[in-house]
Fold each of these.
Amino acid sequence: MSRLSLIALFSLGLVLTAFAAEKEHLRIDIDGPLPPAKAEEVYNKIKGEMADGYAPAQDAVIKAYPRRQRFNIAPYLSDTHGNRYANNFANARAARAGYGDLRPGQRMPPGAVVVKDTFTVTKDGEVYPAAVFYMEKLAPGRNPATGDWRFVQLLPDGSYIGDTTGDNPEDVAFCYTCHKAMAGVDNLFFLPEAYRGK
Ligand code: HEC
């Protein structure tokens, strides 16, 4: 093959790669906040990409969450988590202990995990994977300063923002500052009413 045709082939490769990347990116028509059915449709298109993005963290909680029980009927806009569309998942231990239905004073057992994955929709309708948040219940007395919860936040590429029991705890200290408003029900907010499953 001549040098020129090799260069031509290489350039074509670049163009095709760029085209594929462009084509993969999700863009939707929007007119204000997404209604639940539309939010669900968008989530179904992007959830694989979200999970792939978080995967490099090699975090057991994050690997498992897509198979956990989801408690919301469709992604809801969470202004407290960066104005992103969010879902709530809980592991079996949290679900059995009554996640979403706690009576005042009730506590989650150690090992209970609640995960919130998120995506962003810009005002132009560009859809992007966004941060993932989780809370893991620790043994009683393990970390009273955060209600014995471990708060973790990761970026869409799987890098950690912080972990209250690991690296950069100061970067996730604001989590408990807000969540403790729900101290009566073990610092859990659950979900906006309209998005709760039956
Ligand atoms: C300003 C208040 C606020 C801050 C700060 C905040 N949250 Fe939340 N969190 C909420 C609210 C309210 C909900 C309920 C769902 C919603 O409206 O987003 C919630 C729900 C959650 C849930 C689902 C469990 C539950 O039922 O409460 C997780 C997990 C979570 N947040 C993790 C985090 C982490 C990790 C951080 C810090 C990086 C954080 N949150 C910071 C207010 C906050």
Amino acid sequence: MKKIIMLYGLFLVMIGSLLMYQGCSELDTSATIAPDLDTHPDGWAVPTSNNFHGSYIASHKWNLSQCKTCHGGDYSGGSSGTSCLGCHTNNNGPENCRTCHGNSDHSNPPRALNGDTSTTSVGVGMHMFHRFPLYSASVACEECHRDINGFDDPNHIGTDPDGIAEITFGPLAFDTINGPIRPNPTWDRNTATCSNAYCHGTFKEGNVNAVGIWTNQGSVVCGTCHGDPNTGNPTPRTNGVFTPPHYSFMTINSCYVCHGNVINSQGQFVDKDLHVNGEIDFFAR
Ligand code: HEC
Ligand code: HEC
Ligand code: HEC
Ligand code: HEC
Ligand code: HEC
Ligand code: HEC
């Protein structure tokens, strides 16, 4: 009787090790699908860990297709059985713009890709001031970036991303208001400046040499783009020379006489959408 139990036990051990062998070869197969990632390390789901999956993705060219091989094309689990969508609850799950850019309200920085939220950081800069400008309409993303339609848009990350956004100016920065001056808008990342852009002064009677410093809100005031940046008087003058219909005696309280659809006698904008829109608006009312 004892012998039979022993033999039976041996048989069970043999079956058991066969099954274990089978298990290991399955692990090997999955390792060849994703050589980088045979198992997730400890802390993979913990944002403060060095092994956090968000940091891994950021240091591996933001490539999400590798995750899809196990977690499914729609991130709902796939062969892994673990969905991304339980934590990434916005539209399109992890591919939602706000996963990597901005915050729960908007997709433009802040927050930048590196986590920065300060306007002195080049990834953040004056985004919010172009979204909600003091005295013009909101500036569309496409005035400074190529149009990006979805995460997989070829204009977006590409195959070899450097983590630095591309600046490609839209029509407004090239506007000429039918004048002789041809803007040549230029972004210089080293100095964080935008120069030769219509929007910032490159137009007839504008301050054609004005620059906007992306990381310094105070670099653009009334008078920077047209007029006198030192006194803040916006009356247009080219190299200090006034030409009709603009004269040296004019102040911010004179503009309404001819530009009354844009600004009132107190120098307050009555229609911000007409200012820096690429057209000279005058003589209404
Ligand atoms: C080779 C298959 C495979 C690949 C590739 C893969 N995963 Fe997973 N992942 C799994 C499996 C299986 C689980 C569930 C078991 C576990 O938690 O380890 C899982 C679980 C997870 C979890 C939940 C962890 C937890 O503790 O709650 C997260 C988050 C995750 N994966 C993110 C990712 C990301 C991000 C990628 C792409 C960079 C990725 N995975 C690529 C197989 C994979
Ligand atoms: C257990 C919850 C959880 C699961 C499951 C999960 N994530 Fe995340 N993920 C997070 C958290 C938390 C963050 C950090 C959010 C933050 O910093 O605001 C994050 C951040 C990210 C980021 C941002 C990286 C960056 O550079 O900012 C990506 C991309 C991402 N996850 C992809 C995935 C993918 C793909 C899956 C599924 C394969 C997945 N996540 C599953 C919780 C999760
Ligand atoms: C007035 C021009 C302008 C507008 C409008 C603008 N951006 Fe940008 N954006 C920039 C500049 C400049 C940078 C920094 C480029 C660099 O790092 O060289 C940048 C960088 C970025 C980055 C990368 C940030 C990082 O982490 O490095 C993202 C993402 C971005 N912008 C998204 C948007 C979105 C979304 C919108 C529309 C809601 C928008 N931007 C509107 C000028 C603009
Ligand atoms: C997984 C992270 C991630 C998600 C999700 C994401 N982006 Fe990006 N985005 C990046 C990275 C990385 C860059 C910088 C690309 C580079 O190095 O050229 C970038 C750059 C940008 C830029 C700067 C312009 C450019 O061409 O470089 C804009 C605008 C932008 N993203 C918009 C979006 C929009 C809109 C969405 C949602 C549809 C989105 N992003 C979703 C990671 C992400
Ligand atoms: C007497 C009427 C009049 C007053 C007052 C006036 N403008 Fe103008 N403004 C015009 C006209 C007309 C044009 C179009 C000129 C053209 O097409 O060459 C114009 C054009 C402009 C332009 C576009 C650049 C250019 O010169 O073509 C700017 C900027 C401008 N005005 C700002 C102002 C500001 C700021 C004030 C107040 C300080 C002001 N204007 C007061 C009549 C006036
Ligand atoms: C960022 C650059 C910039 C700043 C700062 C700026 N302007 Fe202008 N302004 C323009 C441009 C560009 C035009 C040319 C017409 C257009 O596109 O609206 C203009 C035109 C005008 C006009 C003519 C009416 C019109 O919009 O066509 C008035 C009036 C005016 N600005 C007043 C002001 C006042 C007052 C301030 C300060 C409170 C100011 N601007 C600051 C760029 C600027």
Amino acid sequence: MKRYGQTLFAGIFITLLWCSMAGAQPVFYPQLSKESRACVECHKESTPGLYQQWGYGKHFRGNVGCYECHGTDTTDRDALKHYNFRIHVIVTPKNCGRCHVTEYTQFENSHHAKAAEILGSLDNELAEVVEGNKAFRGRSALLVNGCKQCHGSIIKIKNGQPTADTWPNDGIGRINIDGSRGSCTACHFRHTFSAAQARQPETCGRCHLGPDHPQKEIYEESRHGIAYFNNKEKMNLESAKWVVGEDYSAAPTCATCHMSATLTQPATHDIGDRISWNNRPPVSVRPEIPDKKLGLKDVLPWKTRRENMKEVCGVCHSSGYVDGFYEQYDGLVKLYNEKFGEPGVRIMKMLKEGNLITKQPFDEKIEWDWFEIWHHQGRRARMGASMMGPDYTHWHGLYEVAKAWYMDFIPEVRERIAKGKRAGGEKVTAAKKLDSYLTKVLNSDNHRWFTGKMTPSEKAEREKERQSFKKRYLRKQ
Ligand code: HEC
Ligand code: HEC
Ligand code: HEC
Ligand code: HEC
Ligand code: HEC
Ligand code: HEC
Ligand code: HEC
Ligand code: HEC
């Protein structure tokens, strides 16, 4: 932030120079422009709360006024005549990027910027068809009020104004009419646009919560979250510079681990830079695979990303401790993938290809059961392990996976096989093929306890442990 202070005194010359230098860092304007003064004069009265928010933010201090963000020339499709001015209501990341080129470039090349590309996903089918209808301006009101408020809408403009089926919307991957993606105000609320606010876990927790990605809840139950909530006043959140181990040390927040600077690593607006697994699909994959599919540029190898994260942990922990954590986490991902994820995916594929279930998603109970196994419970287990939330890893995670797998999913697969065998024709072949695969899965080390096929030594070991527990327990009584 020092550089801003120095440039303050360089005055108009620097400002003009800055205007001609694309990619320069932001500078203070020496004074508020006459256009912005006019906006402010009127908006002080018409929207006093908004005016005050702007007054508390750093843009006010830098004389970045309403017109510097909302002003536009007449060629824009979203240009709206507003008193004596032309403005656009939505200020896009590209508009912010005029002054904040680093943050803009990093953000645009991240998963966040791609978050509106969910069309065609299973969850999208849920929102458009299963839960929704097309009665709201030809769209599903659920998609508009639900999914898209987090993921982002595709902005449409009518008479210079964004349409109600696409805005208000601060979704993280919103598709703007200037081609840029997302909204910076998803994390930097208007009109203060503060860094301090974005550093706090509640900001991320607006989207990162709930049954299918409970990062907020996991963080809250982790020791990191507890340390944060107990020491918030020691976190120095308002500091211009926020380097872990230098400006604060009490606890890490979401931003600390995923975005903010360390002594050797600059801050990043690409939240994928420190992530070595993608735990969202039915089987976890290394992030290079989905990142390339999404068309992200300069995709980092997972090992580099892991080193980046380890470097953050290393500010507060020893390297042995951190290596141990990653071994534990990898172990849990492998367990879920091999025991449930991979066989589940294969079984569902065989059911579909053999016409043992219909082509229509979600019209049969087994599809809901499998969807929840990987999309809810299986994610919770993996995500819990990744961020030190043992309750999510176990009780909300693998416990629920196992219960649904053995008590609902497997019995339903068996029913489908029996029905297929009775149906005649090609279904018989498909059912037999699936039967033999299922038998192989259930006879594997992972599942043979369920079919009563544990080896004698495994059985003896379980029995020994049961007896020893009983003894300990009884002695306490
Ligand atoms: C003469 C008074 C006046 C001036 C000058 C003025 N505004 Fe407004 N502006 C308003 C009022 C009143 C509204 C409507 C508030 C409402 O609908 O509740 C408004 C609405 C807006 C909106 C929202 C528009 C929408 O359709 O959602 C934006 C953005 C805005 N003004 C920005 C500006 C900017 C930027 C300037 C300066 C270039 C400016 N205003 C100048 C009075 C003014
Ligand atoms: C740093 C850039 C910036 C500045 C400065 C700024 N705005 Fe905004 N404004 C935004 C962004 C971003 C949005 C949110 C648009 C979106 O993404 O949906 C917004 C939204 C608005 C809206 C519509 C949303 C609402 O809550 O009603 C109004 C009205 C508005 N601004 C008025 C103003 C006025 C008046 C000023 C000056 C006092 C001002 N803005 C200064 C960036 C800015
Ligand atoms: C005309 C140039 C300009 C535009 C456009 C602009 N900013 Fe800024 N921004 C600045 C300046 C100058 C500062 C530094 C103010 C300071 O350090 O006191 C700043 C600071 C910030 C900060 C740091 C605040 C803090 O608490 O440390 C954030 C976050 C920010 N801007 C976000 C945005 C967003 C989001 C947009 C678009 C909606 C935007 N800016 C548009 C010039 C601009
Ligand atoms: C509360 C905000 C929120 C809502 C509502 C929401 N999502 Fe998400 N969604 C997220 C977040 C956050 C992630 C990323 C989780 C992670 O990285 O662990 C995500 C991930 C996804 C993914 C996986 C993306 C990938 O990279 O693999 C898809 C697909 C998806 N959501 C679709 C939808 C659909 C369709 C709806 C509506 C039926 C919806 N979401 C509702 C926040 C939301
Ligand atoms: C996912 C949340 C998130 C989004 C979206 C986001 N930011 Fe940030 N931003 C942060 C966090 C967290 C920080 C604080 C980093 C730190 O200093 O620890 C920050 C800091 C900043 C700063 C201050 C940098 C400095 O050196 O002081 C600027 C400027 C900024 N963001 C601009 C933007 C712009 C422009 C966009 C849109 C392209 C944007 N941000 C989108 C979370 C976000
Ligand atoms: C407005 C909603 C929203 C907010 C706020 C938000 N995120 Fe996200 N985030 C998403 C969605 C949606 C995705 C999934 C994008 C995709 O892959 O399609 C995501 C993905 C991610 C990922 C996975 C990235 C990758 O490359 O796989 C990380 C990490 C992340 N967010 C961290 C954060 C942090 C940290 C914050 C707060 C500083 C934050 N997010 C704020 C919606 C949000
Ligand atoms: C102590 C550091 C730390 C904190 C604090 C933290 N995370 Fe994470 N986060 C991680 C690690 C480590 C991973 C797993 C990285 C990997 O796979 O290599 C991760 C993974 C993620 C993912 C990817 C999930 C997926 O789909 O695979 C998201 C999204 C995320 N975190 C969001 C958040 C949010 C939101 C918060 C705050 C509520 C937060 N994180 C707090 C360290 C942290
Ligand atoms: C800003 C300092 C800080 C950073 C950065 C940090 N931690 Fe921690 N960590 C703590 C504190 C404080 C505790 C609680 C200490 C205690 O349990 O006595 C903790 C506890 C832990 C625990 C014990 C959890 C439990 O429930 O027993 C693990 C494991 C851990 N951290 C791993 C990590 C990993 C991995 C990273 C990086 C992804 C990381 N930490 C980053 C401060 C930090």
Amino acid sequence: MKVTILLGGLLLTVFSLSAFAEKEVSYKKDIFPIFQDYCLSCHVPGGKGYNRSGFDLRTYKSLMKGTKFGPVIQPGSSLTSTLNVLVSGHASPAISMPYGIKGGLPKDKSALLNKWVDQGAKDN
Ligand code: HEC
């Protein structure tokens, strides 16, 4: 009995510590630089990606607005967000992003994007 309570307390401590250690991903510091490096060459007015999809990645507002068909980010759910799927390397090569690059984004970058969306895709 005593042991169970002790173990429970220990587990709780471990969980709250790991929640504390989970760093919040920043749009400005972590996410925008990825768009700058991998997406903005095409997703600005006049660029190939913007012209075909209407998706402008210059600002948080235009990012959240999405394509001419609507949003590509569902805050809180990277699994169902079009943007995250397209850069994951699992999308069909015809629509995988960055366009024309096999395998999508480097894994650490797509993982960071997933984390940011799962944390609510905030303008932080
Ligand atoms: C070399 C140019 C290029 C780059 C770089 C690029 N894109 Fe694209 N993007 C395109 C083109 C072209 C389309 C339109 C594809 C189509 O529908 O045929 C597109 C479409 C999209 C769409 C809309 C897809 C849809 O189904 O409506 C999203 C979302 C997107 N890109 C995200 C990104 C992200 C995020 C990056 C950076 C990781 C990126 N793109 C980098 C060219 C590019």
